DNA sequence: CGATAACCGAGACGGTACGTCCCGTCTTCTC
DNA sequence: GAGAAGACGGGACGTACCGTCTCGGTTATCG
């Protein structure tokens, strides 16, 4: 039997009827996030989430269109999405720092596994794919593009650069090693990526 | 003999006893490949493969460790893997041609969807991940690295380049757009990738 | 969305606040009766009744103790209960007429199916069983007993007859064929029942 | 019984794969019968039966078309169906004895409740209704008719009697009191039923 | 060259999870 | 306030596959 009582002060009896929607949502999301970190996408089951959250499966089905959508929401609930992007005058340093930070995130925390599995699930779950693009990859890509654009404005980079493709060649290269781990994803690798490109971009 | 059913009018019905292992394997792989192209990884089920192949699930479990491994083998059976890599004297043309061909493969044929879903499945299926690296991504990466190495030997590229990272910045960038389709994967995009890099690599 | 507007002048949106209790009750009962005739006890659901009546399930739970009780009330609302029992001087004719009428009721109208299903439901629903006895079978049995008693008083039947048992042997025999349809319930059967008994009752 | 492996020391762990069908069927039926006697048709759930039998729900769905069919089979498994019908020279005694025995069966054992609930369920479950007629009520009715026929042949009853209707007026009257308990089902009632009829039947 | 062992198909088994339906309870908002 | 609206926890439904296991039958191999 699943027993999951994160807060000991709400011990046993919860009413059968309606509870505030926000509270239920929060509990479901927390349970989803924790389950995701604990077991990964395999083993991430609506049934288990419902059991851990003390909620009904029906409630989950009403609010999330797919298992992936719930997982994504749960992930964001547990792993606070830090979108900060330091913008100093040195574009090379900025890119390198950001890229290195990303490498450490996906390598040294549980986030890496979760992200890769979310992307994996998204290949067969259009709802998740759309949500992922809209809420995760899209904003991050935009941030990086913005940084590049500012550097172009400052004259640090050639003005005719296709920023989007540069993003694919920096972050996309890292995702490549994350998702198809022929070779390890290291800090040096991240630095090399910037190096390779920067000569042509200036 | 109480019952006599000549083979001709019961084409479907195949004997129940032992058949040559190779024949069974071949039929299973063909069925797997066809099912994969027809329905994608979702809907790709060992049960369905067994039914299409007229084989027993038990037989499949004996030879393939996971659903993904079977799918990968089935894919290779149906989609003949062309590994040719034209190697002219012009490294830029070679890279561009190869990259553009890749873009067309994943965009204009069913292969793209299958590949992305195989990679997706590999995120939670270590057996498949290993097989994919060993039999698909590894050889292709090696081929590209080899081409770059030859260009370096010919003096067309700087000798201190990390070829592997370049591969990630060309093919990995394409995979990025394939797997996280924030932006479309176009022929122009492929050309831009080479452009961006080549200035710094020479 | 369930939309069920029996009267055209209240087309769609009815206010959410309080409405007269009697009106609500009436609408619920009508909806219950119609649903009962339309779908039988299977498919008779408090949820559906509420939706058809434009009422809240809560309101139903407040007034009816069980699904069966609601169904019974609904049945009485739609099928007006005719309790008339012609009482001529001829006891044989009276019994036969009444019995034949009963046979036609349960055979040629939807009432038969509903009654049998109500009795069926009553086997596991004590509330319904009690209500059914009190409001349906009890009064009818009393009427029949009364008729027999009058015939005894007139000297048409022996005075030491147990009228109740006779009712069971007439109507009960019909219910037997209704509920356990080994043999059809026909008009001839009804006549035979009276025949069989009358010889001993006189 | 070719094989008998009395491994009493491994009662708990049962293999995951296929087990002899007959053994599984037997366990399911026993569990069904016990659950039926314990909780009645309400509370009789395929899920519970599966759990008690240590079987999969799928297995049950494969063999029984409806909940009622399973309940009926389970009932027969636990309550051995005794069809004996003593046939002495005295038709009155025979009928009375059989009827009184029936009254005691349904009044003094759990069988009564189960039978009534099975009949109840049969009102909305055609599969069960058919099975009940074929396997329970039909044979019993036939036995009674046979007895009556023999008595007619012996000259104890008039030869133009409709035996079937007599059965309805004896057993059907009892079922009437069982299913619609306006009045109690007593031994005296059973004797009265025979009394009422016999005068006219001779 | 006929017995036998290997191995396949067929498919049932215990499970897990799915997505749906309805129950009876409870809260919120409106008239 | 009473009633509609409707979400909530719960439980059972029937389905789809999973991975395991037994059975019956055929065929290749070997005595």
UniProtKB/TrEMBL annotation, chains A, B, C, D:
Region (Disordered): 1-21
Alphabetically ordered keywords of this record: DNA-binding, Transcription, Transcription regulation
Protein name: TetR/AcrR family transcriptional regulator
Pfam families: TetR_C_11, TetR_N
Organism expressing this protein natively: Micromonospora trifolii
Lineage, uppermost ranks: Bacteria, Bacillati, Actinomycetota, Actinomycetes, Micromonosporales
Residue ranges for the DNA-binding region feature of this UniProt entry: 45-64
Domain HTH tetR-type: 22-82
PROSITE patterns: HTH_TETR_2
InterPro entries found in the cross-reference section: Homeodomain-like_sf (IPR009057), HTH-type_TetR-like_transc_reg (IPR050109), HTH_TetR (IPR001647), Tet_transcr_reg_TetR-rel_C_sf (IPR036271), TetR_C (IPR011075)
């Amino acid at each position: 039997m699943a027993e999951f009582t994160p807060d000991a002060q709400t011990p046993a009896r919860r009413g059968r009827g309606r509870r505030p929607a926000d509270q239920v949502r929060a509990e479901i999301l927390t349970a989803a996030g924790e389950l995701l970190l604990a077991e990964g996408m395999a083993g991430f089951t609506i049934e288990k989430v419902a059991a851990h959250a003390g909620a009904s499966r029906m409630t989950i089905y009403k609010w999330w269109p797919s298992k992936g959508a719930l997982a994504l929401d749960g992930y964001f609930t547990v792993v606070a999405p830090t979108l900060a992007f330091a913008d100093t005058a040195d574009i090379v340093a900025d890119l390198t720092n950001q890229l290195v930070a990303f490498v450490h995130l996906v390598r040294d925390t549980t986030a890496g596994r979760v992200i890769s599995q979310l992307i994996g699930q998204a290949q067969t779950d259009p709802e998740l794919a759309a949500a992922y693009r809209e809420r995760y990859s899209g904003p991050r890509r935009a941030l990086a593009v913005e940084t590049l654009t500012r550097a172009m404005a400052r004259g640090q980079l050639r003005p005719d650069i296709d920023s989007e493709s540069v993003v694919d060649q920096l972050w996309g290269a890292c995702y490549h090693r994350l998702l198809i781990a022929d070779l390890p994803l290291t800090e040096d690798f991240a630095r090399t990526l910037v190096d390779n490109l920067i000569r042509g971009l200036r």
